[in-house]
Amino acid sequence: MINRRQLIGAALGTALLGRGSVTQAQSIDLLIRGGRIVDPSIGLDAVRDIAIAGGRIVDVAPRINGRAAETVDASGKIVSPGLIDIHTHAGRDAEGPALALRDGVTGLVDAGSAGADNIAPLASVLRAAPQACCALLNIARTGVISGGGELLELENANVALAREAIAAHRGIVAGIKARLSETVARDRDLEALRRAQEAAEPFGLPVMIHIGQSYSAMRAILPLLKRGDIVTHMYAPAPNGVLDENGRLFPDVLAARRRGVVFDFGNGRNFHFDWDMLERATDQGFYPDTISTDWNVLSSTTGVVDFPNVLSKLLMFGMPLADVIASATVNPARLFPQFEDRGTLNIGAPADIAIMELREGEFEFVDNYDNRRTGSQRLFPFATVLGGRWIARDA
Q: Which member of 49, 55, 91, 105 lies 3.0 to 4.6 Å from 387 by CB, making a disulfide possible if both were Cys?
């Protein structure tokens, strides 16, 4: 059973950290020197060097003296596994994945942009992307309809077509997405979710549901979710959110988490969270299992800005830095096989790395209702390493 503690996880049993520095004779392609390594997958938060060769991490140690083809000074920076964003719409635009990569995103999921009718072109974009990518097939054959609801006509939720699309794009399609807001599905939300589960079942795939102002109550929705399914926009305000009329978490929500349902932040831009809802939930210890952005190529002009900015919002509400990093690295990596060897800086892992600056000061953050709050810390993207290749932020 997946639960939040297991997602954050203990150190990997095969971790080789601390075994000693690479020898002078070993060839190093890239040496990242002196950064603060924050890697919850191996329980590490310390200043270390990282040596990379052949696209993989070959050493992590307090001081590495081997000769490197390229050396980068990361002093004063946060060095983490590459960020994995499980709720984006990056596949809509050919340049989307490359733009996300600049923000430290070395793995991403396009969450429901396309359905059975239009999954082929989106899959082509994701296959051509520089980083590891996969997609959640919208249970509606149309995919997301801009300005409308793809499930207003329930016949769009065609199980047979969805299964055909999954089979045709098995390497890319990693799950099913169902948007359950009343503006999208009216009073058919439960039936849409049942059909999503029916489409996913033969392939053993998870279902991600978009909640927020649904017709049905969470207590009716949650029993239809299985272990590994994902609730995105977890802090969506009433009606029919995760809090009761007194602002307390429904016991059903915590029970769902205990049986392995994953709760995802999903920042987005409209009606997905407000500060009051987030504050009430986190005051009760209800933090995300995963943090995602609901990103698209225009997100830099919205309250999303970039993935590190979204992560900073949870820092503002008291989520420890290690848990924030886990929610964007090792936790999402465990949800989809496309990322099974990512989300870690363990020796032997692909050298996918996010380098960020954690700045102190006064920083303004925006919720989905244009309410503003000021935090004292903010993460900024600095550079990305993908498969051992250094990618500067301004490249």
A: 55
